[in-house]
Amino acid sequence: MARVAARLSASGEQSTHPVDEVLPLPKLALYGFQHVLAFYAGAVIVPIIVGGALGLSTEQLVYLINADLFTCGIASILQAWGIGRIGARLPLIQGVTFTAVSPMIAIGLGAGGGTAGLLVIYGAVITAGIATFAFAWLPARAFRTIMRIFPPVVTGTVITVLGIVLIPVALNDAAGGLGSPDFGDPKNFAYAGGTMLFILVLMKTGRPFLSSIAILLGLVGGTAVAFLLGDAKFGGVGNADWVGVTTPFHYGAPKFEWFPILLMLIVMLITMVETTGDTYAVGDIVGKEVDSETVARALRADGAATALGGVLNSFPYVAFAENVGLVRMTKVKSRFVVVAAGVFMIVLGLLPKAAAIVAAVPHGVLGGAATVMFGMVALAGIQTLAKVDLKEEKNALVVGVSLAFALLPATVPVFFKEHLDPDLSSLLNSGVTLGATAAIVLNLIFNGLGEDDPHAVAEAAVAAVPAQAEAPADPAPADPEKSGAEKSGAAKAADGAPATP
């Protein structure tokens, strides 16, 4: 498949297909499946990490993966196909946001873990999704005001904090998984190290397509080695059903608690910045003008997909930058390719045996891949901060103090466990929450509201979102003369917000 995609790219055939063209079925299937491959590892790793942290059983974890893939498919079709004034009608893949991982773990563990923790998470996710959907119908002025709270110094700090907070989660998996009898066994670190090395070699020497799916290939390769050595158990695959349907509220009625809802609202504010950036980015790539209504429709799709995720036992959704990079790399501009990818994901979400295979990935292998991914998240945040004048003391204080706040829960966990009200602890016992809140508040204190330029914030968000495909996707240096699409970005800045309905 990689050879076919490369050959088509070399011939220039892909570039003839505009964003609204429906390609022949074989091409739709080929290019759609390529999007799934680039997206798959990022799609399944969130339910695996959250489910593992909450202590779910293998059967529950399999169901969680199926629910995630099923909802990803629906969300991607909604975003790319569009229904009325919902969906950007651009080639944007929807996936579970990494921003929500640490807060969801904090919420779930604060509620006692297991399925009880999931019910509180789902109540917060549904509420935050509805709030995001409603927000995207507000007048443009209100949206621009919110976006001014997120200049590059804030978005860069938040993304850096996200990576730093998630790296210990990956390292615990690399050690065998917290609570496992072989936690800290050198063989787990051997699997993690081998998986990391394989991924890094692929990203260094592989072709662009192989680099874009290096994480997925690392998980497959590491698991294969572990299976040959007797450390990957696939007994659960035989016990899993061939077909399984995701049903609403599978674990019970969601629970709506104030502090978890507030925490998830903060998460959705951050994801709105990500989606805004991805929408502008893919619009420039495919040569389609992105106006205020396009951004609004993209955010409405985010909100609707997130609320649906809470109903269908999944999590908050955001436009995935991995696949924005893949669109740039392959020059396949048709949005119906993403619709095809959504169909593939729905089918995968109906196959519990496929999810059981994923759930059987050994902790060491998963930890090795996750360490690379989360390390790149932190690096992406640092790259965004490189655009900020950190010689200016006010900006330096925003970054430095926010990082210190982010490390507090991991450094002094006893404070949150024994000296805070349980509800308050579930909100604050998250490095992402404390770091992001500190960055926003400190920036407002020292710098005030930023310039009314949501497109600049969007560009910062694009640079800050982790993407396996983006690194190899555009190796050429930037042209000093902007293209017409790029030039239009500054003009779009003035109205880069939801329009009044």
Automatic annotation (TrEMBL):
Compositionally biased residues, Low complexity: 486-501
NCBIfam families found in the cross-reference section: ncs2, NCS2_1, pbuX
Keyword Membrane: yes
Subcellular localization: Cell membrane
Keywords of the record: Cell membrane, Membrane, Transmembrane, Transmembrane helix, Transport
Provenance organism: Streptomyces goshikiensis
UniProt similarity note: Belongs to the nucleobase:cation symporter-2 (NCS2) (TC 2.A.40) family.
Major location (coarse): membrane
InterPro entries: NCS2, UacT-like, Xan_ur_permease
Pfam families: Xan_ur_permease
Top-level taxonomy: Bacteria, Bacillati, Actinomycetota, Actinomycetes, Kitasatosporales
Sections of the chain in a coiled coil: none
Official protein name in the record: Purine permease
